From TrEMBL:
Coiled coil: none annotated. This is Cobalamin biosynthesis protein CobD. It is a multi-pass membrane protein. It comes from the Bacteria. Keywords: Cell membrane, Cobalamin biosynthesis, Membrane, Transmembrane, Transmembrane helix. It comes from Noviherbaspirillum saxi. One of its GO terms (cellular component) is plasma membrane. The chain crosses the membrane at residues 49-68, 75-94, 149-168, 296-317. Belongs to the CobD/CbiB family. Pfam families: CobD_Cbib (PF03186). Converts cobyric acid to cobinamide by the addition of aminopropanol on the F carboxylic group. GO terms for biological process: cobalamin biosynthetic process. GO terms for molecular function: ABC-type vitamin B12 transporter activity; threonine-phosphate decarboxylase activity. It is found in: Cell membrane.
Length: 318
């Protein structure tokens, strides 16, 4: 049932992509904002309580409906799973940005590429070169694919089923919504949401990196993961980007030759890292790197689907 649910959800999304501003997402955003307004009194414990209440309001009903569908008819449970996976997956949510940036760079229209990247990443791109645009677009694509697709795959395959997929996507959103806005940056309220998503994403991030290594250049991916993932302040992002860059033969993230702060794909600023004697393997990203990223993501997706198919067969035979 897991494999069929994901397969049908992916097929539906190819024909009818779910808009990023759909009513379901808007309702979750309103709920998160209401929880923050209700519980935020400046303490981390208040953020913990708000996170738990939000999860109970969203995860528990999802699980109860799934159990009820199983009691009624397995087909009803399958349809419910497809619906939840369709709502939690985001394979096509932002792909139009990546595709449009790729087309703009291929035609030499850097101004349009900068504008699209700024809209996608919410950061200033006015002074970026073609190499910078390509690098950040590749980084953003890898991170977005992991959080919108592969992370959902992992948690949906867990015994929680659709509730696990909801848990992952909502925890990822709360980690952003309660930390990134200006009035919440560096506040204690959002710390628990960050810690919770770190735990939720610990295994999926490493499985995504392993998938990139398997379908790409395995030796360079593992080497970059082991030696250069620590250069990112976010451990999970560092693992995914170092492994993904190594798999494609690209040098992503902060350049070791400079001592300036460098913007990254998730619109944060990475402080300079002391110059190290060894340079990360790979070349600087170019326009062609965007096509390599598309190939890497699709190969990783096929690998995940194959593993899920084998897992489904094992459960069925068992």
């Amino acid at each position: 049932m897991t494999f069929l649910s994901i397969l049908f959800a992916l097929l539906f999304e190819q024909f009818k992509p779910l808009r990023a501003d759909n009513p379901m997402y808007a309702a979750i955003k309103q709920l998160a904002a209401r929880m923050e307004a209700t519980f935020n009194a400046g303490q981390e414990g208040h953020g913990r309580m708000a996170w738990i209440v939000t999860m109970l309001l969203l995860v528990v009903p999802t699980m109860l409906v799934y159990w009820l569908c199983l009691k009624i008819n397995p087909l009803a449970a399958l349809l419910w799973n497809i619906l939840i996976v369709y709502l939690t997956l985001g394979f096509r949510h932002y792909s139009h940005y990546f595709t449009s940036i790729q087309l703009a760079l291929n035609s030499g229209d850097e101004a349009t590429a900068r504008s699209l990247l700024a809209e996608w990443t919410k950061q200033d791109t006015a002074a970026m070169t073609t190499a910078d645009i390509s690098r950040i677009a590749v980084e953003k694509a890898l991170i977005t694919t992991h959080r919108n697709v592969f992370g959902v795959f992992f948690w949906f395959a867990m015994p929680f089923g659709p509730a696990g997929a909801v848990l992952y996507r909502v925890s990822e959103y709360l980690a952003r919504a309660w930390n990134e806005p200006e009035h919440l940056k560096n506040e204690a309220f959002g710390r628990f949401a960050t810690k919770a998503f770190y735990c939720v994403d610990w295994i999926p991030a490493r499985l995504t990196a392993i998938a990139f290594a398997i379908v790409g250049n395995f030796e360079d991916a593992i080497y970059a993961w082991r030696n250069f993932a620590h250069r990112w302040p976010d451990e999970a992002i560092g693992i995914i980007l170092s492994a993904g860059g190594g798999a494609m033969g690209l040098r992503l993230g902060t350049a070791v030759e400079t001592a300036s702060s460098v913007p990254t794909a998730d619109a944060t600023t990475v402080d300079s890292i002391s110059v190290e004697p060894e340079i990360a393997p790979g070349e600087e990203p170019t326009v062609r790197a965007l096509q390599s990223t598309v190939g890497l993501v699709w190969r990783a997706l096929l690998l995940w689907m194959l593993l899920l198919l084998l897992l489904s067969f094992a459960v069925w035979l068992g």
